[in-house]
Amino acid sequence: MLPATHILGIDIAKDKFDVNLRPLPTAEPRWEASFPNSPKGFQALHQWLAQHGPGTRSQVHACLESTSRYGDALAQFLHQEDYQVSLVNPRRTRHYADSQLTRTTNDTIAAHRIADFAASQRETLSLWEPLSPEHRQLRDLTRARQALVDSRERFANMLETATGLARQAFLKQVRQLGRQVHALDRAIGQFVRLVPQLHRQVTLADSVTGVGLITAATVIAELPPIEKIPQAAQAVALFGLDPIKQTSGSSIDTPARLSRMGSRRGRKALYMPALVALRWNPIIHALGQRLKNNGHTGKYIVAAAMRKLLRLIYGVIKQGRPFDPSGSAHAQRQTSTSTPAAA
User: Fold this and answer.
1) Integer distance in angstroms from the first to the last C-alpha of the chain?
2) Alpha-carbon Rg for the chain in angstroms
3) CA-to-CA distance for 229 and 210, rounded, in angstroms?
4) Per-residue pLDDT of the chain (343 residues; tens, 9 = 90+)
């Protein structure tokens, strides 16, 4: 692949997307346009880039924020057409805008900002690759289930104070959503069994004490393919469970806390299993006791347990062996070197 000569900043929305094309290393001239977020809009962008961009598609590096699912189809299209594509955490572009003292924003300005961000960070941006159809379908199933669970919890909370017809309506919704969640539980289990690689990974993850089939499937779905994650620390960072700490001289020394710059769904999937693991998983129980004896808070301990649980899931899948706390010297070594952070 040839080095990029142009950066394409993309601000994506549900119905349209705005683009800003700039050359490297200079920032001028620029070209701006807006297209519908549809296959026809993708083709129109492709033709527009043929007019204003370099002669070789792979010399265009497109950058867009990884917000919801609005940009997935466009990223897939650009990748298929041999453009370089990066999806970035929107917090990175927002912090870049703050560093530039940006006070006013709209879709056009946002595309301009994303292009400049990508130009300044192009050496650190990783290239996006689409998930396999099986991995994508598993992600769709687990996210659909989580959406139903969230809705069920909202109606269940409203039941506590509702009366009369309102209570009956909420109760009906809770029961209906519960049936739909159980149906998706069965669908996830059936789908996993049909895909040998996913079945192997989910079975290994499920062997970790505290992890169930749905948690295992959700964690695997929210992570990139395990073979593309060389270290457990990267999986931790992708879930936003990595600790950050600010220290400056003698005046600033903040407690460590979670970065939260990764998958919110992944963190949510690990929360309840971490509580179970703190009680029943001997490795995580020992970690929790050590942190408790050192005076750390409950939130701090749960965050450390979530991170450790993810490391154990990553480890059993990478090693291809079920969880064995009694004979895992490696796991014990990981426990002793883990750096916990507060929630």
Assistant:
1) 41
2) 23
3) 23
4) 678 999 999 999 889 999 999 999 888 889 999 999 999 999 999 999 999 988 889 999 999 988 767 888 999 999 999 999 999 888 788 888 888 777 767 888 899 999 999 999 988 888 999 999 999 999 999 999 999 999 999 999 999 899 999 999 999 999 999 999 999 999 999 999 999 999 999 999 999 999 999 999 999 999 999 998 989 998 998 898 887 665 555 554 456 667 667 788 999 999 999 999 999 999 999 999 999 999 999 999 999 999 999 999 999 999 999 998 875 544 444 433 444 454 4
The 8 Å CB, 24+ separation contacts for 117-121 are 117/9, 117/63, 117/88, 117/92, 117/93, 118/7, 118/9, 118/61, 118/63, 118/86, 118/88, 119/7, 119/22, 119/24, 119/25, 119/27, 120/96, 121/92, 121/96
- The SS3 call for residue 285 is helix
Rounded to two decimals, what is the model's pTM?
0.81
Instruction: Decide: 325 and 209 in contact? Cβ < 8 Å.
Output: yes
- The two beta strands, 16-23 and 6-12, are antiparallel
Helix (H) or strand (E) run with residue 9 in it: strand 6-12
CB-based contacts of 82, cutoff 8 Å, min separation 6: 57, 58
Q: What does each C-alpha distance from 187 to 140, 192, 275 come to in angstroms?
A: 11, 9, 26
Within its chain, how far is the Cα of 246 from the centroid? 24
Which amino acid would we find at residue 244?
I
CA distance 106 to 110: 6
Amino acid at 287: L
Evaluate the omega torsion of the peptide bond into residue 29 and state whether it is cis, within 30 degrees of 0: yes
